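Please, does this match?
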Amino acid sequence: MISTHVLDTARGVPSGGVRVELYDGDELVGSGTTDDDGRIRQLADVAPGTYRLVFHPDSPFFRRVELEVVIEAGRDYHVPLLLSPYACAIYRGS
């Protein structure tokens, strides 16, 4: 299972309303929009493999933040995005 969380680090608050997509190659396998707490609690339940996670933030600079993640069997993955107007960081959460 993959979940995510987007935090607006410039304002120090969760970032609601961010569209997030998960792709297996070119196939969309999960999507959602962050809630008022900046979370998508279950973006997708996927098989092991390599996936693209694409965030579409409301930012003056970033139109898309994209990364590839490797999913292993039997593990849950939480991938938060820390976002400010001109910087971002992504990490594997717990």
